[in-house]
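Sharing a chain and its predicted structure for anyone who wants a worked example. Both blocks are below, sequence first, tokens second.
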Amino acid sequence: MKEIIVNSKYDGKKLNTFLQNTIDGISINAVYKALRKRDIRVNNIKVSENVVVHTGDNIKIYISDEQLLGKAVDIVYEDENIIVVNKPAGIEVTGNSTCLTNILIHQKQTTDIFPCHRLDRNTCGLVLFAKNEESLNILLDKFKNREIEKIYRARVYGIPKTSQKLLEAYLFKDNKKSMVYISDVPKRGYVQIQTYYKVIETNKKENTSLLEINLLTGKTHQIRAHLAHIGFPIIGDGKYGNNEINKRFHKKVQELYSYSICFKFNSPAGHLEYLNQKLITKK
């Protein structure tokens, strides 16, 4: 059973909207099934319809772990030390009972699952997990020293004049607003960022491009904000993109995904040395 209090953001909203935006990974089918079975209570009253909720309402939802956690995670690669999975959009890597890490723990029936990095909730693609703490420590160190390369792909609106380019700018993170801001010149509180892109393909009729992106610095929302800053917003990005463009393409989440992970060790990696030069690519 999960118990949630409705906050002011969802005052006057439908119950299914509140649940889908509050419980990561829950499907609309699971919500309606729970309603049919009268497994949802609003202020301790069983409901069977998609009612309107209000600030302060107490919502109790009696859904099994299997329903909450959804279908099995797509495992792209696994050995005795690591797992690489294909994360769907709309779910956090860590942080709540239905996050990707907990889904994987439930699926593998072991608590020895440790995420080595994160992706934004609505960014899909490859996420690397360690299966033991010794491997985790090595991999965290390799990420810190940029000995693991993550390549992303994104569909953006517009066609760059330059087929490949190293972008340099400065980023400020506003934790209160959960936003980042980009500047072309140094400013107080801003940190330097570098984003390399290469054009993979273009569609002149739609005025879109598919870009391959390599982060030389990995900051929060860096790809999304940096590309929008230079005039090429990611299609579907509701935070840094263009709402009119998103509506035109009927996209509600950013078309950005973690495409490949390559281990490029230039220092000892202990028992993970066998991974050196290994490339894992999204199916």
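Comments welcome. Residues 74-146+266-274 form a domain with the Pseudouridine synthase fold (CATH 3.30.2350.10).
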